[in-house]
Structures are given as structure tokens and as C-alpha cells.
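Figure 6 in text form: structure in, sequence out.
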């Protein structure tokens, strides 16, 4: 129960990687606020039925008003916010595309959700962390910008920006006892990815062959690193990108 007494907000937490991370933080003792466009209430009810403290809020990370409501409901339900997991992302529905053919609207969508959404969620939650004397921010990045994944330039660029944001924000928030780290998965077989057969067909085999541990990656492979980054064990670690991809990208 290393997170007993803490409250964690997990964006995009109703399914996939977000749900796996939220479940682990709940098992570690944290109260969980799930923020997602769809399914947040139902997923929170499932966590509550399993004996955890959880609350769901329907919200869009690109909306400052929605995020203000997430913060208000977290404060009302559990007294504040100690941990923010910026997991919400635009990825599973993207079709691999040569960069010359990427629609500017798709580029803006990737930047809005994957980069602006992280900024807005941090801006909304950090005042609560300051009020409580510190906190943990975990930004879901990707191994893609480290490796240079082709045919996904808008996604790769947005996640590269998350790594840069993580480093700069860590400098700003260090004096407030708030750590900011990035967790970078490899190609992870969440339920939404498995629905996109083109993604699986294009990337799965090549990615597995590139790994030192040559198997598929699942959301559960990420939960231990997230638990560590959210805990006091990582109190002196900030501005870092932790790659969890079976040894495909080594930094």
C-alpha cells in the first residue's frame, strides 16, 4: 500500500493502458479519479466493486473546462490530487501514412490530444499538488521518437514534444517538490490497438524482432514502472524518460 492516502488522476483511464495503470495505483492504495471521454464512470464502478476508492469523470483533455471539473470532483471526492498520469492519447485510430499525405487536421488532432492535453492537465492539477506540498506527474510518452518510427510523423512528433515538456516542467516544479517523469512504452497490444488490424499488421512482427525480450508488450508490462514513479521511492528522480519496451530502444 505504498500510495495509501494519495489521490491519482488518470486521463484516458477507462480502458487499455490507462485502466491497467489506474488499477495498479489503486492496488497500491491510491484513490483513483478516472478521466475519459467515454466509460469513466463504468470503469470507476468496476474499481469500486473490487474494493478500491474510485471516481469517474467524463472529460476531454483538450477542454480546460472539463479538466477544471476533473480537479473539482477529485477535490470533493478525495480531498485533492497527489498524482497525475497523463495517459490520454490519439494513436490507435491513426492510419500509418507517408508524411507527405498526412492531413493537417490529423496533425492538429495529434498535437491537441497528445501535447496540448498534457499541458492543460498539468496546468489544472499542479495547483492542488502545490497546496498539498508536492506530487508526482507521469507523462505517457513513447519509444517511437527515440527510435524514429516512420509513417507516423504526427504521432512521433507529438510524443517527442511530451519528452521535451517533461524535462522543462521538471525544472519548473522541482522547487515545489513535484517530480515530472515520462514513461515510454513500446508498441503495446491494448484492446484499441488490437482493433486496428493495419497497425498490428504493419508494426507488430518488426517490433517484436527488434526487442531484446522478443515477445508482445501488454498494458500490464507498464504498471510496475508507473507504481515506482508515483511512489516515494522515486522522490529524487525527475525529468527522466523511462523506456519500457523489452529492450527495443536502449538509451
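Output sequence:
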Amino acid at each position: 500500500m505504498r500510495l495509501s492516502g494519495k489521490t491519482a488522476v488518470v486521463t484516458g483511464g477507462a480502458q487499455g493502458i490507462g485502466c491497467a495503470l489506474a488499477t495498479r495505483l489503486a492496488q497500491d492504495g491510491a484513490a483513483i479519479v478516472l478521466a475519459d471521454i467515454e466509460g469513466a464512470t463504468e470503469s470507476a464502478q468496476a474499481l469500486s466493486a473490487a474494493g478500491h476508492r474510485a471516481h469517474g469523470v467524463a472529460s476531454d483533455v483538450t477542454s480546460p473546462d472539463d479538466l477544471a471539473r476533473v480537479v473539482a470532483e477529485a477535490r470533493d471526492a478525495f480531498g485533492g490530487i497527489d498524482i497525475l498520469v497523463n495517459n490520454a492519447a490519439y494513436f490507435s485510430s491513426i492510419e500509418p501514412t507517408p508524411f507527405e499525405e498526412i492531413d493537417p487536421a490529423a496533425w492538429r488532432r495529434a498535437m491537441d490530444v497528445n501535447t496540448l492535453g498534457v499541458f492543460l492537465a498539468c496546468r489544472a492539477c499542479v495547483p492542488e499538488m502545490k497546496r498539498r506540498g508536492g506530487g508526482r506527474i507521469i507523462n505517457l510518452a513513447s519509444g517511437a521518437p527515440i527510435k524514429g518510427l516512420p509513417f507516423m510523423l504526427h504521432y512521433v512528433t507529438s510524443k517527442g514534444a511530451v519528452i521535451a515538456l517533461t524535462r522543462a516542467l521538471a525544472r519548473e516544479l522541482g522547487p515545489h517538490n513535484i517530480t515530472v517523469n515520462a514513461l515510454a512504452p513500446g508498441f503495446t497490444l491494448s484492446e484499441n490497438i488490437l482493433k486496428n488490424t493495419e497497425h498490428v499488421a504493419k508494426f507488430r512482427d518488426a517490433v517484436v524482432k527488434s526487442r531484446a525480450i522478443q515477445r508482445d508488450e501488454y498494458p500490464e508490462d507498464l504498471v510496475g514502472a508507473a507504481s515506482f514513479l508515483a511512489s516515494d521511492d522515486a522522490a529524487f528522480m525527475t525529468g527522466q524518460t523511462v523506456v519500457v519496451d523489452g529492450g527495443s530502444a536502449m538509451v
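Caption detail: The longest strand covers residues 178-185.
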